[in-house]
Amino acid sequence: MQPILEVENLTVDFPSEDGVVRAVRGVSFGLQPGEVLGIVGESGSGKSVTSLAIMGLLPNTARIGGSARFAGQSDLLKLDPRSLEKIRGKKIAMIFQDPLTALNPVYTVGWQIAEAVQAHNNVTKQAAWDRAVELLDMVGIPHPKQRVKSYPHEFSGGMRQRAVIAIAMANDPDIIIADEPTTALDVTVQAQVLETLSKVQAETNSAMILITHDLGVIAGHADKVLVMYAGKPVELAGVDELFEHPRMPYTLGLLGSMPRLDATGEEPLTPIQGSPPSLINLPPGCPFSPRCPLSRAHCDVDEPERLAPQDRERDVGDRLDLADLAPEDPGAADREVLDQVLDLEEGTGRRRGARALGGGRCDAHWSPPDWPCIRSRMVSRSICSVPGTAPSSDRSPVMAEMSVAVTSKTSSGAMSPESSSE
Q1: pLDDT at position 89, please?
Q2: With 218 labelled, which of 234, 242, 323, 356 sits at a CA distance of 20 to 30 A?
Q3: Which domain covers residue 313, as residue numbers?
Q4: Which parts of 88-208 fold into alpha helices (H)?
């Protein structure tokens, strides 16, 4: 099937007094009709800049490279402003992060929705107004005939977000870009807004790019997930595959910092220590290496390439002997860590000593006081399989794999299992 949106090697640079900010570095993905792509990552990872580049809403000072083809034809990055206006709002719509600043405070909500309708359709003012009432009713605003005359400040935060959603769906777009639509909303209103988004997608049969920090939102609404770090995509996979078998230590860190409903209350959350690097002066090698508990010398030399979804499905099945993982004379702490590494995957008749978190080759080794290294590259390897052990029945594969990423180094200042989450 032809992707409705195909982004290839998208780059965005911002010149500044201190140097060039490399905000987006080689983002590529395809979006099928009716599909939901979730984009996750810390603040400053390039999620919103990616969406704004696609919409053509970046300032003139931004230097944009790559391509973003809509429906296999127009390259959105090469269109002139007049041609882009015919697509933006009609074929591709955006739900902005802060509805209070996205809405004009001096016009009624109904006027702003009707304006979006009239901008792309040859209809009368009355027809556009009736469409505004219909849209407010569709997104769950009570008494839409009365509230259509209200100003943005008269709406609650959740109602303003729904009004912005109504504007986005005014012309039945093919793609909706939702930039953190549930930020600063309480849990109940978040659920209502997400339900509205799902209803909108069902009504319009549109594809969606869902940008969020909340992996719970991604788990419930996305079909595939793009993980970004330091302006670059580090992992792309189907939502089930990513949650079940994450390959990138950064993804494991995001998962490990989330609370779980099945937790007993004794397991501490483990944050990712440190801060993202400056996008002006990126360190050599993998940008995540200074914060990664699996980092080794070669991680500071080469930056890993993103693992393609088709490559994730291949299981090379390299195996190491247990002696290759264990120290010659393991102490109690080393043995405990080794047990955690081995206690990974249930239901396959074997445990994987270290899931395929990377490695063009298997670089697992033990060098006290560190623990087994899994090279933080992402290529098609399912490495370090340890055969002949019985499956574990008391741990989920996801939690077991998280334990690899969050287990501490003994004295290096990396993540500690006793740490608490933010």
Answers
A1: 92
A2: 356
A3: 306-422
A4: 99-102, 109-120, 125-138, 144-147, 157-168, 187-204
